[in-house]
């Protein structure tokens, strides 16, 4: 443990588990932009004023940016960039792909214009072959953006489907996910987002074996897990340490960071999160 002397925080005399400074490549926290909670630039600025040093990126889920004026989307991007955070799309390319290659090219062009840095390539709703995923990754990279494929084991994941609806669909093989992830990384993907549905969301029992297989197969530094539920991000840190890359709601930043730094927790984690300084 070490004092968090590199960060501007109060009560810095209390030792913390080590956290690297931004820009981080491990222990990243990505937060949700407006979607379930509708908010504007003043609220986002407040979030960064309070907790910006713990936020590595923001993600517009479900194509929500397509419902907002372009100048507002750009204003969100400007605030994120001013605070050293990237801007990512969420799952929406499934919608764009239905309208052909020209629509995809226009999507990437306009994404850059409004300040996006990362394009998430979600495949929960579509049957996309691995070769097609590779070509999409290459197209995104060629457009000057970072590619972040989102992979999961639950067919129909990534939207607002209920547990009963998803239970009626079949699950995918974990080995296939790992293979697709490796090929996407080889094609130039920056990181792989792991869909929570089928692992820790909309399941009767968590599929922790799937999470372990993904980490062992792709490497902890190459994956980011959806974990927008306190017990979920606690489980990842308890089992894999405070350098897991996690996606949470913007309301959970300080709760997650308190756990990462070992300043708080519950009976299972309190005082147990350790990461020696380099």
Automatic annotation (TrEMBL):
<dbReference type="InterPro" id="IPR013785">
    <property type="entry name" value="Aldolase_TIM"/>
</dbReference>
<protein>
    <submittedName>
        <fullName>Phospho-3-sulfolactate synthase</fullName>
    </submittedName>
</protein>
<dbReference type="InterPro" id="IPR036112">
    <property type="entry name" value="ComA_synth_sf"/>
</dbReference>
<dbReference type="Pfam" id="PF02679">
    <property type="entry name" value="ComA"/>
</dbReference>
<dbReference type="InterPro" id="IPR003830">
    <property type="entry name" value="ComA_synth"/>
</dbReference>
<comment type="similarity">
    <text>Belongs to the phosphosulfolactate synthase family.</text>
</comment>
């Amino acid at each position: 443990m070490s004092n968090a002397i590199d960060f501007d925080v109060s009560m810095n005399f209390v030792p913390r588990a080590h956290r690297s400074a931004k820009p981080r490549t491990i222990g990243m926290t990505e937060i949700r932009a407006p979607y379930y909670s509708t908010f504007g630039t003043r609220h986002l600025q407040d979030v960064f004023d309070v907790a910006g040093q713990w936020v590595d990126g923001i993600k517009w889920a479900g194509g929500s940016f397509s419902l907002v004026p372009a100048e507002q989307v750009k204003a969100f991007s400007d605030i994120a960039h001013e605070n050293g955070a990237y801007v990512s799309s969420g799952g929406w390319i499934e919608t764009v792909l239905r309208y052909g290659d020209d629509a995809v090219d226009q999507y990437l062009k306009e994404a850059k214009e409004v300040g996006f840095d990362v394009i998430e390539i979600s495949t929960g709703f579509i049957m996309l072959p691995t070769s097609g995923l590779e070509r999409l990754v290459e197209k995104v990279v060629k457009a000057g953006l970072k590619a972040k494929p989102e992979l999961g084991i639950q067919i129909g994941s990534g939207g607002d489907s209920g547990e009963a609806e998803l239970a009626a669909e079949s699950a995918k093989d974990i080995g296939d996910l790992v293979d697709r992830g490796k090929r996407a990384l080889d094609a130039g993907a920056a990181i792989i987002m792991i869909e929570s549905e089928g692992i820790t969301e909309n399941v009767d029992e968590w599929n922790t074996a799937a999470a372990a297989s993904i980490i062992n197969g792709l490497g902890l530094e190459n994956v980011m897990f959806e974990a927008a539920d306190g017990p979920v991000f606690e489980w990842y840190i308890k089992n894999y340490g405070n350098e897991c890359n996690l996606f949470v709601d913007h309301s959970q930043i300080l709760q997650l960071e308190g756990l990462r730094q070992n300043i708080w927790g519950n009976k299972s984690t309190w005082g147990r999160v350790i990461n020696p300084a380099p």
